[in-house]
Amino acid sequence: MRGALACSACALLCSVPAGAEGASLACPRCAAALWRRKPGSIHKTWALLTAAAILYVPANVLPIMTLTYLGRSRRDTILSGVVELFQTGMWEIGALVFIASITVPLLKIVTLAYLLITIRRRSSLHPKERTRLYRLVEYIGRWSMIDMFMLSILVALVQLGWLATVRPGPGATCFAAVVILTVFAASSFDPRLIWDHRGGEQ
């Protein structure tokens, strides 16, 4: 539709004068600025994605929590926690934590990097599939926080003094940062860029 812009905040299709865009134009529904493409989208997404990729390593190597039970302390990483769940027979929970806390963040980083590289190379191949891939990444990203949610419950409930306590470790901070950075990276990415090299703007 010519003479129209889709709001990047609420997706409302707004009628605007030809060639107009920017902070002076506001969405009538949510008052967000209307842009044909998000300003600095690629650079912002790369910066956030790089930071997330760097923090992904300590998030999985450093202990995410310290469990003290009857005076004995044990530190667990995300992976060791998954192994412990498997060994105690809680396969479903272990698989859920593994997928949400290890697989999903990594897939988000790899997928967004792939989309950025294809845009950089001006690829015109399979724009619909790449757009669907982005939408999937954007949707499933929120479930990465399930591990932090479980940890927050444990920290709140298991505070029994010398008997048993649970304290968050440095890995938890790194993991939370990875999740937040990937969420921001997906938000700053403009999927309309995927279509720019398929015969111009659509």
Name its key features.
alpha+beta, three-stranded antiparallel β-sheet, 2 domains, 7 strands, 202 residues, two-stranded antiparallel ribbon, Butyryl-CoA Dehydrogenase, subunit A, domain 3
Question: How many structural domains are formed by the residues?
Answer: 2
Measured distance between first and last alpha carbons: 8 Å
Strand content: 5-15%
Helix and strand succession? EEEEHEEHHHHEH
Helix percent reads: 40-55%
**Major sheet, described briefly?**
3 strands, antiparallel
**Count of β-strands:** 7
What structural category characterises the helix and strand content? Answer: alpha+beta
How would you sum up the global shape? Answer: elongated
Count of runs of 4 or more consecutive helical residues: 6
The poorly predicted ranges are none
Task: Give the mean pLDDT.
Answer: 80
The CATH architecture category of the largest domain equals Up-down Bundle
Question: What is Rg?
Answer: 21 Å
Could you tell me the CATH topology label of the largest domain: Butyryl-CoA Dehydrogenase, subunit A, domain 3
CATH class of the largest domain: Mainly Alpha
Explain what this protein looks like in three dimensions:
- The protein has helices at about 40-60, 80-85, 90-120, 125-140, 145-155, 170-190, and strands at about 5, 15, 20-25, 35, 65-70, 70-75, 165-170.
- The protein has about 200 residues and is α+β, with helices and mostly antiparallel strands.
- A hairpin with a 2-residue loop joins strand 5 and strand 6 (about 70-75).
- The chain is elongated.
- It starts with a strand and ends in a 14-residue tail after the last helix.
- The model has no long low-confidence stretch (mean pLDDT about 80).
